[in-house]
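Researcher: Let's run the pair from yesterday's discussion. Sequence first, then tokens, for each.
Model: Starting with the first of the pair.
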Amino acid sequence: MTDIYTVITDFNLVPLIPEIFMALFAMGLLIVGVSQGNRSTSVICWASVAGLAITALLIMGLDWQHKIILNGMFVFDEFAGFMKLLVLLGLMASLALSVRYLAQEGIERFEYPVLVVMSGVGMMMMLSANNMLTLYVGLELQSLALYVLAAFHRNAVRSAEAGLKYFVLGALSSGMLLFGISLLYGFTGSIDFGAIGASLLAADSISFGPIFALVFIVAGLAFKISAVPFHMWTPDVYQGAPESVTALFAIVPKVAAMGLLMRLLFEPFAAMADQWGQIIYFLSLASMLVGAFGGIAQLSIKRLIAYSSIGNMGYALIGIVAGTPQGAGAVIVYLLIYMIMTAGVFAVILSMRRNGAAVEWIGDLAGLSKSNPVMAYAMAILLFSMAGIPPMAGFFGKILVFQAAVAEGYYVLSVLGVVSSVVAAYYYLRVIKVMFFDEAADPFDGRTPFARRAVLLISTAFVLAFILKPSLIVESAQSAALSLFFG
């Protein structure tokens, strides 16, 4: 242990301790799984949750002042620290929701939590990327684990199809990203964020080459957050993947990818704000409208959540369009609220089983208010919040991004965002109507596992209590956002 500590301090690797711990912890879990077999899956899942909690404590114990290590490839600052805590919170929630589900579906294999933890290592690397190589390695480490998880139910045709679609389209997006990086290297002579930013700032005018590279890089990252028009994989993958994996996809990766996009745009591409602002404007507007209108016709719960996530990423992008610390802080708050709301919704969805099978259609929730009123009311609160109805937390998330956009003169985008939010409220209210007013179907199976009840309770309490002290989170997010602009 003394030798490890000496190496870490001598090479100034202290900001990298959480990632090192998570990677070693995942390897240790893999060894345990190989030696004990699939019967150890539940233990490894809960051990993974504990490991993620320890990682969060390690991050909170670090100095959050701006630091760059590994020859400029890795950065740790307040923004990275805050976003990493969000990612770890989402990973813990998704794993807690998964434990019982894996046994119910007969896919209880020890590789599942190991893959989730390794994807988390990739997400944390993404958030601390200060070099295009670090960015790409972190992104692919996350993506490769998620490709496997999408196809984890290997005996189900739809799961295999979801994994294949996700892999093929993910490989395409990675190719676009790499092509953009190579073009950027050709025009700026560097893949280091600081050098790229300095080169673009020093230019008298932005030439066509870096703009062309920017388009490909943003397109590659837009796929990861399922922004329109790179959203086509989302409904199919959400529907085909196992429910616990869909919960993971909806809760965590978008938060990490959005954090990476913010660092990329506000740091190396800061000099190109006029150019990327137009791209993000289109992605935001298109995502909100497609998410709102596309969700209306959906009958599958998971496809509905997919379109909801597309729309929510559109709202979050409004804060990036604003291009200010206020907008960046609003995005962080929005992502936190979205993540917690989504975790609560999936706690309900995963608990809804009938005759040993998971419910798949919105109509299957009929009569939930009579058979399980507590869960029905909690679900209604979360859906009201997603629709942006005050005084729920979701209302404040949307208000913050709209305020940031209006402050910079983006009135049309803000108005269309409000319109799309009203349209999207229809399909959230439709689910509530089914739960409370439709005739009860067959009763649901058994009791809800403790982990799901805990996640649902925390989510609902957060959504309701946010109004009591919103400044606590908003000010912390604004402080984290400032580190992107002023170091």
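Model: Moving on to the second of the pair.
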Amino acid sequence: MKRINKTLALIALASSSAAFAGSDFNTLDVDGNGAISQAEASVDAKLMSMFTELDTDQNGELSKEEFSKA
């Protein structure tokens, strides 16, 4: 039974990660303010790893233009 639960947990984790892998700007901009904060970007590991590099104006959030370079 434990093995089945572990397998199901791994499947759920993998599918949730895959859902964010192809996220678009509007999906990530949860509050709709026209920018992606670090908190909003945190759901996408790839985006978070590039956040500082993409944030060219160093204001702590990504504009649509900055995000488009991801």
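Researcher: Give me one sentence on the second I can quote.
Model: The helical segments are 2-21, 25-28, 38-41, 45-54, 64-67.
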